[in-house]
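Mods, move this if it's the wrong board.
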Amino acid sequence: MPIRLSGLASGLDTEAIVGALVSAYSYKKDKYVKAQTKLSWKQDAWKTLNSKVYGFYTNVGSMRLSSNYEVKKTTVSDTTKAKATASGNAINGTQTLEVKRLAKTAYITGAKLDGSVRGETALVSLGINNRNVMEKASISVRTGTKATTIELDSAMTVNQFVNKLADAGVNANFDEKNQRFYISSKTSGEAGDFSISANSSQGLNALMKLGLLSDREVDAISNTTGGNMAKKLFSTGETGYDYLLDESEMQSLLTDLKNYKNGTATFDDAKKAQLDDLEAYLNTKYANSEYTVTTKDDAGKDVVNTYKYGTDGTIDFSTISDDALNALASQAYKDATYDTTGTKSTVISRTLTFTTGEGSEAKSYSFVKNVDGFKDLIKSIQEGSTDEDIVALKEYLNKTYAGEVYKTTSTNDGITVEKYGTDGTIDWDALVNDEDKLTAFANRLYADSTYDMSSDATYQEISKAVNAVRDGYLAIASAKALPQETSDEIAIRAQAIADAEAKLKEALDDPTNKKWADYIEQNFGAQNSEYDKSYSDFWIQSDNIDLANSVFYRVDLAANVAAGNIAIENSDRAIKIDGQDALISLNGVEYSNGTNSITVNGLTIEALAETTDAITVNVSSDTDALYDKVKDFLTTYNSLMNEMQKLYNADSAKDYEPLTDDEKAEMSESEIEKWEQKIKDSLLRRDGTLSSIISAMTMSMMGTVEINGKQYSWSTFGVHTLGSLNAEKNEGYAYHIDGDSEDSYTSGGKEKLRAALAEEPEVVIEFLKKITSNLYTALDGKMKSSAIKSVYTVYNDKEMASEYSDYSRTIKTWTDRVTDMEDAYYKKFAAMEKALATLQGNSSSISSLLGG
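Not the wrong board. Structure tokens:
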């Protein structure tokens, strides 16, 4: 807008004159601005009211449904034992309840550590260290749907270990003040139970050092896991036969002997000789030994019976009973040799590995021997063997053990120290010729060797089973991942799945594979989910080698503990609480759940304590709740109806229009607020749309409905309006309940509604469903969309929006006209001022010439 300087020459108030000249145009523009402002306020008023009508509409929608009235109340005879709530489908009546068991969350409270452990403490400070493959400090954390192996090393801190436990699916914390680990499951019940178990001897040591070895784990290692599945060395003597077998294979061997002796099976000569040797060995070792069989007496109590395997040094294998054969197989397996630790037995082969030379000349060698085998190697060295491996072994032993002390002897002259050699060379002749010295040196080499599990028969069997079963599951997963969009692809996929399933079945039909698969799933696996009890995901996600190693570690540990090769310290133990499901008996039928909340046919029992005697739970219809539902509905209806009546009957404000800025400048803030509120209050006065909504709602509520041939209305149940004469202003359509203690108008009336709900609840509910259905239908008709309004909108929102836009265009048109007229007048006045200025300039010049 240009800067206008007016009246400089003429002295006229040009701006006021121009304003007066265009006032007619400005008046029309202001009239449209006021109309648009009023329309905007009306839109806001309708939006607010529409929101309330829609909320009531959705509430009425639920009132039409039977489920809205299915309210029950419960009473428990002993609230210290249980609480109960009932939904609509719970059966009315009295039921008997016993709380037999409460749910428990699995929990481990660790043993107390030494008082100096902190979150940043390294595990090596607790005596946890990894040295080689067989001695990895490996433990497993197993939850219902997850199995995790944790390998602890020297540098790991307590906090890092806690994080590993959390990643494995349990809650874990180390309390520095109490010096204990606290570990719990994430959910209660049996499904949330977890275990922390050792996978190796070092894993067992780690659990002891961390205070996490529980009696449960000790029992699992000693009694229930894999100890009878390891292949032990069973020998019938130096001139007999050596066997590597587990307990079930020992039982099969003895069964062959029985079948051979009673003639029910035939064998070749080599097998017969083997079985004859076995019989002679068992007669010598066990014929006079005793075994026990537990039976039940007439009262159902256990009776332990003691028998001998044979008489006069002979066992009759042709007639041996199954009990005796099973007991003998277990005893023979127990007495067989198993020691992969090398601490008590030296007959199991171990591996000595070393390297000679340096840099590019370096070369590694290994020897797999037991103590007798190491003696033979030493003798080969003494005999001057030129075999490359023996020569390398000699060089290594000279370098490593020549200076080692064999023994010390006390004499009058002091202590004499005898070494295996001098000046870096072992005296091989002296070593071989001294049996004690030779045995001591062989034992030293054996102790320094390691057990190679890859050559272990048990490990090889486990590895074969893991590979076969996992490959089967992988094949099925791969087949299921094939495309299936076309008919050919569907057929190819179906055949691939069938082939893969056949492959898995073939693997599991092998008894050995099946044995290990069952053991692995029970002790290492995790089910797919709470609802899918298969282990396919576990097999697919497992690594073959890692799984085989973990299984062997566990089996080897159990076997070594059973054989007494590894001692479990009698130190403080962790306390393990197993996850437990709650168990109740309702009307003689047992139900369980992972939490103490159990729902049966709409009745939810919250178990609080175990019961000694049955208690009762009474379920009945909740008359008070139904009454409150009706009252709440009517309260909502009344609130909305009263508001609409107030809006419709508002005082007129026909002489009031929205204020212009100039008008507001002449008024105070409070005056402006009162002025505008007067207009806003009257915006829906005598509004036809509002009248139609009020009419639709009141007519629906005033109607009657038929139930079982009888007509019912609100008045049937003591619910009515007060009428225009008795009601407060704008509350003539509000409903009141006779006997309502909170209603001053009707509190003294007879409580027909409450009585009807108690005596004929079905009739009242049916009435409510029908009357609210009529009301819902009436409102639904008002909320349908059309050319001038949107869906779920009771006013003409589209029409108003269009009208608002029209006003905007009209206002712009008149604003432009005012501006154009002002510009035209200002140009004329500017020309006049210029002319006057010129005239005045000429007059001044003449006056000067004339001497003025």
